[in-house]
Each structure stands twice: as C-alpha cells, then as structure tokens.
C-alpha cells in the first residue's frame, strides 16, 4: 500500500461569476493536472457505506476521524478504475487507492465481494474484510466536472468542481452521460490541497470575494438529494 501522506484541504463554495474569474486567473499562472483533457474532465464515483450508514452519520455528527470507500473512474473511461479510501482526521486527511478491473467493479456493485477474497493489495484486503464484517453496500453515484491545477512546491493542487449529479441507481455506474439529480444552489466548489505549506502567491491567487469555508461533502449531499 502507498505510504500515508497527510494533506491539508480547504473548501469554498463560489458563484458562477467567481468561478469564471478564478479559472481565467489560474489558467494564466498554473498548469492543469495530468488528468485534464482540455480544460476539465468528468469524474464518477460510487460510494459505499454500512447498512447503518456509519460514514454518513460520522460526517453529519461532526466526528473528527472519518473514512469513506468509493470506486472511481474518469472521462467515461472504464479501462482505468480505482478503489479509494479517503480518511479525514481532524484538520488533515489522506487518500489511498488500488486499481481494479471493470469486472471486479461490476461484482462490487452487485455486492459480490468474494472477487476480492484473494486480492494481494492491502487496501483491497481491508475493503473486503470491512464489506464482510460491516455489511457494506453501494449507496450513491456522484458525477461531476472538475478543472484542476497543480503546482509542485508544497504538492499543491487546486480544483474547481461543478455540475454535480447524484443517483442511488447504483447499477447505472457505467452508463454514459449525466444521471441522477443535479445539486441545487451551488455553482462550484473550490478546493485547495497541499502537504505541509501553501505558497503565499498561490494563496493570493485563489482569493475571491467569497471566503467562507465549507465542509461540503459530495457523498452526504448526494444522499440528501436522494432522501438518504
């Protein structure tokens, strides 16, 4: 399993006007990240939770330590799929991932977790054990567009996520196009992620007139849109 690297992450909900201003500014000074095709790319994730919705309630109750599991692919390309574990521990967090095949993903969607019984990767082993012991289930699909920028010092990454849709029709995970209900009232979520420090000029670059931080959780919002 990859080495755990704790990172800082700050989120801000911004308007369409400030999204346009900020993306124009960022494109002048930073390069897009390696996943970009053109300016933005699509992300689709399927989140798993226990039958008691422990990950959902951990977030809603404001618990300091939280973890979520999801499978994810990009730009409707099912040839590259990852299982990811995202952990939040106080003000910092980390993410671990392992590649899986489409066949494995299809079986996980159907709750046929034995496809991971002989997996060698520690994260796949952990997910298998938790699926079996905690009765994990696929809960909600989240689809959205992302424009992402990267800067080496501080391992800094700036993302703007928009046009989010959510669906509990988990068997539609590999269907083309947007599925589910669109997130209302939020034009864009700005996220700034970095390891130990954020360069001052980057901090100045991402300033907008909307400076209120948010704990915006795509998983929780997706569950709300589909009435839990």
From TrEMBL:
Which ranges does the record mark as transmembrane? none
* Pfam families noted in UniProt: VTC (PF09359)
Q: Which InterPro entries match?
A: VTC_domain, VTC_sf
Q: Which GO terms describe its biological process?
A: polyphosphate biosynthetic process
List each copy of the VTC domain by range. Answer: 7-223
Any idea what this protein is called?
Answer: Polyphosphate polymerase domain-containing protein
- What species is this protein from? Trichococcus flocculiformis
């Amino acid at each position: 399993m990859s080495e755990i690297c704790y990172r800082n992450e700050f989120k801000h909900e911004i308007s369409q006007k400030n999204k346009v201003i900020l993306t124009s500014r960022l494109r002048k000074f930073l390069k897009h990240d390696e996943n970009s095709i053109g300016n933005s790319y699509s992300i689709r994730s399927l989140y798993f939770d226990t039958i008691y919705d422990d990950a959902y309630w951990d977030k809603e109750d404001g618990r300091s330590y939280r973890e979520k599991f999801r499978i994810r692919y990009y730009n409707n390309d099912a040839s590259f799929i990852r299982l990811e574990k995202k952990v939040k521990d106080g003000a910092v967090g980390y993410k671990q991932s392992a590649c899986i095949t489409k066949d494995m993903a299809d079986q996980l969607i159907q709750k046929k977790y034995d496809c991971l019984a002989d997996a060698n990767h520690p994260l796949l082993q952990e997910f298998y054990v938790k699926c079996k012991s905690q009765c994990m289930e696929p809960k909600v699909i989240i689809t959205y567009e992302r424009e992402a920028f990267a800067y080496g010092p501080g391992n800094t990454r700036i993302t703007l996520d928009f046009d989010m849709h959510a669906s509990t029709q988990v068997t539609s995970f590999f269907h083309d196009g947007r599925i589910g209900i669109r997130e209302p009232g939020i034009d864009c979520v700005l996220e700034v992620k970095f390891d130990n420090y954020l360069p001052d000029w980057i901090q100045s670059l991402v300033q907008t007139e909307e400076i209120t931080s948010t704990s915006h959780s795509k998983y929780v919002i997706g569950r709300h849109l589909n009435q839990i």
